[in-house]
């Protein structure tokens, strides 16, 4: 645990302690989910603080394990990248965004099914008042915040390769994140009543995406040891810039293009000078990053490139 950054470590500890506390109090007839789980805002059991406390409640061992495993696996990397204050702000904001997304989805369901016109709900086992039924709309779990962390990892280290069971080959982080988002979207549209808040997960990712774009533009709190999340101020905005260039190109009138090639010795010398220039620029960028953040602040790909360039 000593190698885990403090915010990530404390998030793990708090979530585990809350889970054990919920079990202990449940044996005395006290349901933590009723007090700290997120209720529908029109339900009588809703309290404003539940928008924050719900992300520290979990429905079972598996729910807790997989969420905390993701926090440990990706959260510690993103905390070291963002800095402590910014990472905590990002985590809680994604969790809050996920909760608000779930509230919005429930409001649409409440309006679409015209629940306001009914006083009771009939089941095969009996009848329940509408008030009690709405109080059963209860959301728990850190999944929304976790999905925000997954998104931030994919946007920050898009080329990192990951082994995902049961796939036999590694995949890049950007494809891993996009795959998760597609699965959640399809699940939200097709799996009705499966007990999983798919739209909350997507809400956490969406809020995280918007927050990262805002930070990339230079806005937000400082907080990070890198002077405001340095990876988003420099080369790591490749994904967004690529998308922006692609979208702009769709509406840009194409100009005639003439290819000019040089052969022989002149062409070889020009190619060599261009290659040396690109290597020098890349080396300067990496050395600037080492100067600001230390060697441990480099990504594995940057460490490999630094070794390759200086070896020549």
Tell me what the structure shows.
The chain is mainly α and 312 residues long. It has 2 domains: 6-233, Rhomboid-like fold, CATH 1.20.1540; 264-311, no CATH class. Helices cover 63% and strands 5% of the residues. It has 13 helices and 6 strands. It has helices at 6-26, 32-36, 50-53, 61-82, 84-112, 130-135, 143-156, 173-190, 198-216, 230-233, 238-250, 264-293, 300-311; strands at residues 38-39, 120-123, 126-129, 138-139, 161-162, 171-172. The strands form 3 sheets. The protein has a two-stranded antiparallel sheet. The protein has a two-stranded antiparallel sheet with strand order 2-3. It has a two-stranded antiparallel ribbon with strand order 5-6. A hairpin with a 2-residue loop joins strand 2 (120-123) and strand 3 (126-129). The protein is elongated. 29% of the residues are buried. Mean pLDDT is 82; it is low at 222-228 and 230-237.
Q: Secondary-structure blueprint of this entry?
A:
Elements: H1 6-26, H2 32-36, E1 38-39, H3 50-53, H4 61-82, H5 84-112, E2 120-123, E3 126-129, H6 130-135, E4 138-139, H7 143-156, E5 161-162, E6 171-172, H8 173-190, H9 198-216, H10 230-233, H11 238-250, H12 264-293, H13 300-311
Antiparallel strand pairs: 1-4, 2-3, 5-6
Based on the coordinates given, report the CATH architecture of the largest domain.
Answer: Up-down Bundle
Question: What structural class results from the helix and strand content?
Answer: mainly alpha
User: What is the distance, rounded to the nearest whole angstrom, between the alpha carbons of the first and last residues?
Assistant: 40 Å
What sequence of helices (H) and strands (E) makes up the elements? HHEHHHEEHEHEEHHHHHH
Assign the CATH superfamily of the largest domain: Rhomboid-like
Low-pLDDT parts are 222-228, 230-237
Neighbour order of strands in the largest sheet:
1-4
Oligomer: single chain
Total domains, how many?
2
Kindly identify the CATH topology of the largest domain: Rhomboid-like fold
Q: What helical percentage do the residues reach?
A: 55-70%
Strand fraction equals: 5-15%
């Amino acid at each position: 645990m000593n190698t885990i950054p403090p915010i990530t470590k404390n998030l793990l500890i708090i979530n585990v302690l809350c889970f054990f506390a919920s079990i202990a109090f449940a044996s005395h007839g006290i349901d933590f989910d009723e007090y700290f789980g997120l209720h529908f805002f029109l339900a009588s059991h809703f309290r404003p603080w539940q928008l924050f406390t719900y992300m520290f409640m979990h429905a079972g061992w598996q729910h807790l394990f997989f969420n905390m495993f993701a926090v440990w696996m990706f959260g510690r990397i993103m905390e070291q990248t963002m800095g402590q204050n910014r990472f905590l702000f990002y985590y809680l904001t994604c969790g809050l965004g996920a909760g608000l997304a779930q509230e919005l989805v429930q409001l649409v369901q409440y309006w679409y099914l015209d629940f306001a016109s009914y006083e009771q709900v009939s089941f095969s086992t009996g009848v329940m008042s509408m008030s009690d039924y709405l109080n059963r709309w209860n959301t728990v779990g850190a999944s929304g915040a976790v999905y925000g962390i997954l998104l931030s990892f994919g946007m920050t280290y898009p080329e990192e390769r990951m082994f995902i069971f049961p796939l036999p080959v590694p995949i890049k982080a950007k494809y891993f994140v996009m795959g998760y988002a597609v699965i959640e979207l399809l699940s939200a549209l097709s799996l009705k009543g499966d007990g999983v808040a798919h739209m909350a997960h997507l809400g956490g990712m969406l809020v995280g995406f918007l927050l990262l774009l805002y930070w990339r533009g230079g806005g937000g709190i400082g907080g990070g040891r890198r002077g405001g999340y340095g990876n988003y101020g420099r080369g790591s905005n490749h994904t967004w810039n690529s998308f922006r260039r692609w979208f702009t190109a769709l509406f840009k009138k194409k100009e005639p293009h003439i290819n000019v090639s040089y052969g022989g010795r002149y062409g070889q010398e020009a190619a060599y000078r261009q290659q040396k220039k690109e290597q020098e620029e890349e080396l300067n960028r990496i050395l600037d990053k080492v100067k600001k953040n230390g060697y441990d602040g480099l990504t594995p790909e940057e460490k490999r490139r630094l070794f390759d360039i200086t070896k020549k």
